[in-house]
From TrEMBL:
Organism: Paramuricea clavata (Red gorgonian)
Listed SMART domains: EFh
Protein name as catalogued: Myosin-2 essential light chain-like
Record flagged with keyword Repeat: yes
Alphabetical list of InterPro entries matching this protein: CALM/Myosin/TropC-like, EF-hand-dom_pair, EF_hand_dom
Keywords carried by this UniProt record: Repeat
Gene Ontology molecular function, alphabetical: calcium ion binding
A GO CC annotation given for this chain: myosin II complex
SUPFAM superfamilies in the record: EF-hand
Pfam families: EF-hand_7 (PF13499)
Length: 150
């Protein structure tokens, strides 16, 4: 008996098939995280590694959808779905000390480079490029829209 509904399984199968570039009904085991993230789950890279290493210790195995489902189940139990825009917005408002709807890019960079799935300074530069103003401030609403759209 599956822990996912038939409708969800079909949705997951369709996403899986998009990553099957060879057309043999398999994906690289190392792509499991990409498939899972495309399904709106937000696992940390380390969480994916913990599950995949048991199945593919050498990082070379191709897996079927049936082999992928237990990976998805294990990760889905431990990680949340991607946050809704309002949840993301509320989380960033903690850094909006003055209540103007902006955060300092330096503070946000510190958080993004030191917590969770850490970003590099270069990745932060790319992320901030379109939303940082000349005073080093980032509009929270614009930032949330940009991050969640792409």
């Amino acid at each position: 008996m599956s822990v996912f509904s038939d409708l969800k399984i079909e949705e997951y199968r369709e996403a899986f098939q998009l990553f099957d570039t060879v057309g043999d009904g398999k994906i690289e085991c190392s792509e499991s995280g990409d498939v899972i993230r495309s399904l709106d789950f937000n696992p940390a890279s380390e969480e994916i590694k913990k599950v995949v290493i048991d199945i593919d210790p050498k990082g070379i195995k191709r897996i079927t959808f049936e082999e992928f489902l237990p990976i998805l189940h294990a990760v889905a139990q431990k990680c949340p779905k991607k946050p809704k825009p309002e949840e993301f917005f509320e989380g960033l408002k903690v850094f909006d000390k003055d209540g103007y709807g902006v955060v300092l890019s330096g503070e946000l960079r510190q958080v993004l480079t030191s917590l969770g799935d850490k970003l590099t300074d270069d990745e932060c530069d790319v992320l901030f490029r379109e939303v940082e103003d000349k005073k080093g401030r980032i509009n929270i609403e614009e930032f949330v829209k940009m991050v969640l759209s792409g």
